Amino acid sequence: MHPVEVTPVSRKGWLLFIALCVIWGIPYLLIRVAVRELPPPTLVFLRTAPAALLLTPLALHRGELRPLLAHWRWVVAYTLVELAVPWLLLSHAEQRLSSSLAGLMVAAVPLIAVVLYRAVGAGEHLDARRLAGLLIGFAGVAALVGIDTGATDPLAIAEMLVVALGYAAGPLIISRRLAGLPTLGVITASLALTAVGYAPAGLLSMPASISAETVGAVAVLAIVCTVIAFLVFFALIREVGPSRSTVITYVNPLVAVLLGVVLLGEPFTLGIAVGMPLILVGSLLGTAPSLRKPGATSEARTGEPADDPAASPPTP
């Protein structure tokens, strides 16, 4: 077996990584701010419509929408499980949950993904290290919810679990049914479909007036956390590879908790203190590439492990 040559991350790669960790760590705070005045359907519409309008010209210019037509059913399925349903439930849940707790619940996505993909035969072998990671991570989720039981809403927790399941299932559809299709085209089409789907309810339930704070939160969600975030993510993948780029999954929750506590005055509870390190350590171990036996297919010589869809980062 050839030795694996691990290439160092460039300065550009580190800058893209840091930027994306922040960009995808702040949506939970912004959603929490926005849902104080906006109904969830309105928020989803106002986030996706501007993003779709901004990305569509770029996707058309690159010719990345036409190839999707032959796979439109699976594009719709991906849209439902990755954007349309999770973003509605996430917005509804954050009407009653802190942004910190929401961010940490989403941090369990890699754990759910490992179990889901193993169930359908799409994931790597669960060696002792990955199995221990799953147990540690799910213990963290139990601690996160169980210790702070009196401060959590059961319906909101259930909604967040559905959100996490959707975020875990989305990359599975990409890897099994939409592999090889242009990523920007899939994201743009999904945003457009979601915007169109929520337009009636979003427009009908839109308040007569909203504060400047809410307008700012929605604008940042649509432009920075959606349009710019995806463009930065694609650039990060090109710079450092798909496997390394998934490390943002483990940093985003830390940003979400920090911002929620510092900017919104949310409590740093015992459940968060106990559950957060368990979830992050469990996710890191549970999604790590399985240790290969001698003679097995080697990793790419760039130092990138074989792609595992279970390690794909969720879209906050």
Description:
The protein is an all-alpha fold and 316 residues long. Mean pLDDT is 83; it is low at 294-307. It has helices spanning 11-23, 27-34, 40-61, 72-93, 99-106, 109-119, 128-147, 154-177, 183-204, 212-240, 242-245, 248-263, 270-286. 48% of the residues are buried. It starts with 10 loop residues before the first helix and ends in a 30-residue tail after the last helix. 68% of the residues lie in helices and 0% in strands. It has one domain. The chain is built from 13 helices and no strands.
The radius of gyration is 19 Å
Secondary-structure element order, N to C: HHHHHHHHHHHHH
- Estimate the global geometry from the Cα principal axes: globular
Biggest sheet character:
none
Uncertain runs: 294-307
- Our estimate of the beta-strand percent is under 5%
Q: Count the E strands.
A: 0
Q: What is the count of DSSP helices, taking H or I runs of 4+ residues?
A: 13
Main traits of this protein?
mainly alpha; 316 residues; globular; 68% helix; single chain
